[in-house]
């Protein structure tokens, strides 16, 4: 088989910066939309089972997100290290880092999957899930937990492809997987012929099945070596030194994402305190808002890759200009998305929830309150992406912890418990936290010290075996 070469992926360290940013960001956004499509397709079919089923899925989502976050931080490290090496056109290091990143993240995912499966009832009890939805929530998330290694494997595949600037192949795989998920969801949820209906657990089984297909296709791409990197089986022999360095770089990103996920869990707990109706409202509304944030996440990921590649190519000025373009593009893009969500809130909510007028009305109000502040989320995400691309994952982690735990959660608790807003205080906390976090992130960026990180050069990170 031919060795991979740099021409297999676009050179993003030259030419117009905005074009390079959009070349990378648009397919990432589309792929993330398709991945979110798993949840939206599940919500569509599960919504036909009633508000209790919707609430069961809603309480499980933050827990699953937390577990994925614990491991996906290491995919951030793998992506940044691969991008830095690819920017320097050090292809042997690219391949070695890719293989070791997969070994690290898959090992961690197996440990998390086993522990989470047995701890599932305890986790639901900790967030105060009521007996009316406890059994369904437990069944749903246990199936998802068993699929964590598949989830992590595909997340790492996407991260490694992103590191070399190859983002179209993951997009195509996501498209195929989503189509299959849409077919499997009604089959596994409601049953047909010899296939029994599994209810909400069927939605989780459909997702895990399509994740398995995605991982098989992703490994095939990397082993063939036609997309900018090529894995060899001997490359999976553990390199302890490299994995420890990857762990140190990825750990802050894991804490970053976990802090965000824990924040969602706390918000879910606050919503659960107001009853199943408010909990279902939060479940529907937060998912629609998560859909709106996807463009900001895509631009942030693209910014990380471009900053890392340009620093690897020893072009720090271009890395700095890339960050500025990302911040401006994300703010304007999310402003437009927020306006669209505000205008289309009612039909979107009704599409994913049938027959419960109280939940639908409250969810529309929630989405409209929070949508206008999405543009500020875009600013924070782009600054965090710049920090990660420069190897300053600790700085990105601190921004998330401050925005989630110092700002949003205390504001949500105070407004919902100590003002006349009641449960609507939860909705207004999104606005306050998004604006304040954006101001903090922008001030951090304008200090100009975000590029001063200790990220090791790729050649120091790995000793490539012969």
TrEMBL record:
It is a multi-pass membrane protein. GO terms for molecular function: antiporter activity; xenobiotic transmembrane transporter activity. GO terms for cellular component: plasma membrane. Keywords: Cell membrane, Membrane, Transmembrane, Transmembrane helix, Transport. It is found in: Cell membrane. It comes from Hymenobacter gummosus. It comes from the Bacteria. The chain crosses the membrane at residues 21-41, 53-86, 98-119, 139-157, 169-192, 198-223, 261-282, 288-313, 325-345, 394-415, 427-446. Its main location: membrane. It holds the Pfam family MatE. This is MATE family efflux transporter.
């Amino acid at each position: 088989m031919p060795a991979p070469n740099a021409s297999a992926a676009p050179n993003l360290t030259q030419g117009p910066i905005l074009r390079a940013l959009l070349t990378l960001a648009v397919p990432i956004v589309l792929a993330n939309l398709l991945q979110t499509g798993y949840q939206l397709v599940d919500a569509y079919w599960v919504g036909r089972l009633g508000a209790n089923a919707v609430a069961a899925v809603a309480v499980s989502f933050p827990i699953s997100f937390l577990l994925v976050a614990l491991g996906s931080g290491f995919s951030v490290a793998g992506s940044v290290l691969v991008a830095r090496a690819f920017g320097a056109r050090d292809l042997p290091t690219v391949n070695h880092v890719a293989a070791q990143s997969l070994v690290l993240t898959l090992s961690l995912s197996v440990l998390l999957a086993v522990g989470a499966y047995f701890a599932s009832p305890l986790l639901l009890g900790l967030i105060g899930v009521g007996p009316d939805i406890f059994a369904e929530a437990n069944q749903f998330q246990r199936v998802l937990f068993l699929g964590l290694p598949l989830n992590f494997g595909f997340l790492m595949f996407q991260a490694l492809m992103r590191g070399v600037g190859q983002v179209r192949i993951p997009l195509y795989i996501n498209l195929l997987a989503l189509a299959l998920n849409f077919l499997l969801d009604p089959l596994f949820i409601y049953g047909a012929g010899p296939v029994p209906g599994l209810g909400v657990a069927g939605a989780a089984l459909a997702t895990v099945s399509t994740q398995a297909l995605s991982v098989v296709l992703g490994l095939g791409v990397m082993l063939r070596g036609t997309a900018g990197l090529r894995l060899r089986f001997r490359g999976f022999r553990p390199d302890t030194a490299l994995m420890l360095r990857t762990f140190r770089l990825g750990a802050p990103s894991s804490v970053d994402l976990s802090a965000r996920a824990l924040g969602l869990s706390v918000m879910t707990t606050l919503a659960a305190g107001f009853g199943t109706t408010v909990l279902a409202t939060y479940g529907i509304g937060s998912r629609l808002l998560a859909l709106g944030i996807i463009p900001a996440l895509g631009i942030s990921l693209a910014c990380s890759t471009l900053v890392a590649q340009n620093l690897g190519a020893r072009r720090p000025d271009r890395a700095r200009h890339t960050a500025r373009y990302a911040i401006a593009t994300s703010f304007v893009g999310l402003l437009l998305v927020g306006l669209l969500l505000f205008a289309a809130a009612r039909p979107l909510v009704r599409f994913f929830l049938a027959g419960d007028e109280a939940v639908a009305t409250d969810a529309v109000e929630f989405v409209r309150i929070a949508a206008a502040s999405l543009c500020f989320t875009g600013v924070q995400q782009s600054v965090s992406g710049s920090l990660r691309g420069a190897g300053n994952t600790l700085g990105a982690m601190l921004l998330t912890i401050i925005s989630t735990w110092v700002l949003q959660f205390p504001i949500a608790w105070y407004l919902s418990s100590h003002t006349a807003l009641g449960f609507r205080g939860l909705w207004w906390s999104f606005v306050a936290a998004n604006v304040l976090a954006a101001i903090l992130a922008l001030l951090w960026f304008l200090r100009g010290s975000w590029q001063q990180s200790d990220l090791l050069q790729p050649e120091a990170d790995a000793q490539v075996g012969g």
